[in-house]
Amino acid sequence: MNVNLLDLKPQNGALEPELQEAFLRVLRSGHFILGPEVDRFEKALASFCGAKHALGVSSGTDAILVALMALNIGPGDEVLCPSFTFFATAGCVSRVGAKPVFVDVCPVCFNLDLRDAARRVTPRTKAILPVHLFGQSADMDGVLALAREHKLHVVEDAAQAMGATYHGRQVGTMGDFGTISFFPTKNLGALGDAGALLTNDTALFERAKILRMHGMEPKYHHPLIGGNFRLDALQAAMLSVKLPHFNDYTAGRRRNAAHYTQRLSLLPGVSIARAEDCGCAKASAAESASRLILPVAYPHNGHIWNQYTLRVIGPGRRDALRAHLTARGVGSEIYYPLPLHEQACFADLGYQPQDMPWSHRLAGEVISLPIYPEIPVEQIEQVCAVIAEFLSAN
Ligand SMILES: *Cc1c(COP(=O)(O)O)cnc(C)c1O
Description:
Distance between the termini: 23 Å
Oligomer: single chain
Mean pLDDT: 96
Number of helices: 14
Bound molecules: pyridoxal-5'-phosphate
């Protein structure tokens, strides 16, 4: 039996009557861009995320772009962001004309290393863009303290982490803006592209709202240069159907993560990442004896497990495990195989691979396993059996 990395059909199929009804409602309304469906979804999302305002936009990428535009970040400004993340985080910084300043990450939680961030602050630093990678919050006390000290704006890239918490606070609500993606692989997936901004600042919300529609206010008058970053009514209607089920999706992902950890941690050479090693500059002794390191949720974090990402230790070992999984029909993915400071498009920034040693190393070690909420438990067992077979044969 093949195990898919992700299968969206069971989740959307279970809601097919409601999704069809929502589709027909929008079809017959004749109102396809913004409007009442988007207003309604924004209110529900703000309430769910504990934010004062939510603004629906065209994608998670555009959410970051609009946040940076609303904060007036542009040429001459520097923005701190992790080098181990999806491209959009830093791509948006460059697109507004600012300079991404890459920061190394922690090998336990995969998020920004705040000590490295502090070292890279300059008089031009205007903002910090933490990413809550794989569904676990970054060290937001550290981010907010650094931001206060240097008067930086904070944009939280919560594309993978809607609903995750940090000391009980929802991610995306601690900075000036939080940005969310509803790309179908994210924990709340639309049936196409969609995203949102969260903010507790009413003035910033109003600015972002104007930027979403060409910087226009009132009609055909443009105090700002914005763009077309609008959310479709159809996507908002679909998301309104799925949002009430979000906590069930999270519960499923948590159950699956716990199942993997429970099974895999019994295998020889497998350890669980140690929360106390967060931010450590070098591998701990326990870690260097491991062949596989399982991900961990810090006790103060509510992890929503967008990904279950292991580290496979040893040169070539990750690729060997991936080939073994693929040969046995088990889907997996490498998030991410090349850190941003080594990407060709950022070559002019002049980074060397070893400037961010953990990002560089993790890119060669990580592999993500199937963890979507509806995956049958037998398939998780199968993935674990295939990994056990790999460890005993290699
Ligand atoms: C998915 C993702 C984005 C972009 O979201 P889209 O909706 O695909 O534009 C940005 N940042 C991170 C970390 C992501 O995972």
